[in-house]
Amino acid sequence: MTVRALMSEIERACRTANENRHRYMVFICSKDLNDRVMKIAKRAYKHHLKARNRKKGSERLLLAGRSYFNELAEKYFDGDIIHYKESGKVLGQTYDSLIIDLTEGFHPNDLGILIETVREGGIILALSPPVDAWFDLKGKWHEDLVSEPYTVEDVVPRFYRRFIKKTLQAQGVIIFDADKRKIVKKYEFTKEFESREEIVIPEKREIKKKLYKLCATQDQVRVLESFETFFDRKKDRKAVVITADRGRGKTAVLGIVTPYIISRLERVLKRPVRVLVVAPSPQAVQTYFEFLKKALVRQGMKNFSEKKSGDKVTVINSRYARVEYAVPMRAMVEKDFADVVIVDEAAGIDVPVLLRIIEGVKYAIFSTTIHGYEGTGRGFAIRFLKRIEQEEDIEIVKIHLREPIRYGSGDPIERWLYDVLLLDAQPAELDESDIEKIRKGELEFEEIDKDALIEDDELLREFFGIYVLAHYRNRPSDLVILLDMPNHLPLRVKVNGKTVCSLHVAVEGGMDEETVRKLSDGYKPKGQIIPDLILKHYWDYSFPELTGIRIVRIATHPSVMDMGIGSFALQRLVEWAESRDMDWAGSGFGVSPELLRFWSRNGFVPVHITPQRNEVSGEHTVIVLRALKMHIQSRIDDINAEFVRRVIEYLGDELKDIELETAIGLLNSLRKEIRACEPEYTRVERRRMKKYFQGHSLFEYVSDIARPLVRYYYTRTDKADLDEREERVLVAKCLMMRHWREIDDSRAYRRMLKALKKVWEWYHGAEED
Questions:
Q1: In a domain? residue 300
Q2: pTM of the prediction?
Q3: Main role (predicted)?
Q4: Enclosing domain of residue 603
Q5: pLDDT over 80 at 56, yes or no
Q6: What is the 3-state secondary structure (H, E, C) of 255-273?
């Protein structure tokens, strides 16, 4: 069989793909990436153009790979050539075809981004090693990821093994062995349903027909239809939540509908409307601004100016409105000046931050990706919606987009991509017998064999599907780290054989003296997150020599949360680690009051917090530890005591904006008293406090006495009998130095007096009453 047979197969595939508005993929496999392979690829691409009746240069071609491939690509092709590390730059862009270098493997996040830039009728040419080579292929990024003291020799490429098996089974894919000049896999496609729903614009409408005509799918038309009643509020506030898989046009439709919203509000407000657009990065909203500009012209708002940061649009300004992008951190402040807040890719933002962003906002619009290579929005939908649905003054409208924009429904390449990257993984369906067993505590805990995991597709999808529905922003690379890295292990809790809690742990520590010395000189090891942190923040040189487990992920099936499964999993995990003679267990997470309580209930104490919020997610990351041996307990207690001492000081500055409940949780985590100077009070100061307690003075006149006392109070393990609301006021005013307006308590003044009196008596004794 010759290259001519490949061209015939490409012609057949191209014809079928065009008829169905789909894409197709051709793997050209060879032991070496060289001119011969590039010539075959060039011939294949030219034949694709001929089959589509397109001329050379008439299509937009993307070429992506590493340096050597890019050098060859310049010789043979005219197109946009990028290195893998620049993949993020093409997010949201559309190409007619793609040539991608897979000869040294690939980073799974890059694969998802690049494949999804290709529109219907396009060819994806993948230059690949021979099929058999995938079973032992270790890419450069494996070297970058493997944790010390392991090396790339310890890596097992299970992800690539599953990848090539799935590719051999996939529809829409041709595999050609360039060395043997034969087709290994022919093109197959079975049509299951129509690729595109007919677009029908509603007859009765307030939104202009010109805006509807910007919609590429009937799903987008339905979004605009839902905004026809956006201002018909039954409650004081309104929130629209748009969810979609990747590439469904949710960001574009936000840009299309914004001019209508502006026009309606401008009539009422009699001034320019302020629209705040929030997303994890300015790159994420470029499609929004692109369609906003088109829609403004069609709405009759032609005279506008734009402002850029680098090459990214961040502001559109006109006499009708100011539409401005803000990162989540800035949005928490600036939302007070906005008439409408639009949050795109909301799954990439921490839920407490989202709640702060929409606090008091009349009109809020959220959109997020459900299944995507950048992260999942299902957790957002579950956790965030639960919270805002509890607020009685908000009317919520939910919309889901299903139809792809760049290609038709049923596209086999999308199906293949979702399969190999597990973007559409789902947890097991639980029935009443499963739930009854959970109620009775009839749960089983087990470590999963990773080789068995990639052979059992149902188990893998169940296991990873829980993460997709949980509160983690998962990426395909997380799956690869779990499957391929030697120190990363999967464990689970099951009932009737079904996974109800998924755990991903990394073994850390066990470092030799030489590596510890390098760490102390500033060296940052690959992996080894907790040992590195403890050494560099607490200068405990022997801690990295200990062995422990870092819990990378723990997630419970969303149908059976709050039934004790997570706590059961942690307890059994600790027992599992103890049986392997480990010294500690730990984890790191974006802190929230709920998560801090969960870890504290299970014997973990906080030992570190990032003073700055993550600019994208808005989170402070907390590290927690639990001792697995008696002699390790005192060391962790010492670290925790030093940590709480720092938190007491940070709350007045670096952690001033942290959630109040989280601050109190961190302060009350203290296991061991901190060495601290006791405050001493003069006769005059005692008299001043007495007058305050008698109601003859104000807190503002005794704050200089109260604050040192409260700081000292939180260095002790024995506590006064404060109730929850009294402690909130005490911490907010005396440690975080917040204004009374920032404390959500109409009786804050009275509670402060009661709280300070209790702490004063705790310190001085009853004689000071």
A1: yes
A2: 0.88
A3: Catalyzes the formation of N(4)-acetylcytidine (ac(4)C) at the wobble position of tRNA(Met), by using acetyl-CoA as an acetyl donor and ATP (or GTP).
A4: 421-650
A5: no
A6: HHHHHHHHHHHHHHHCCCE
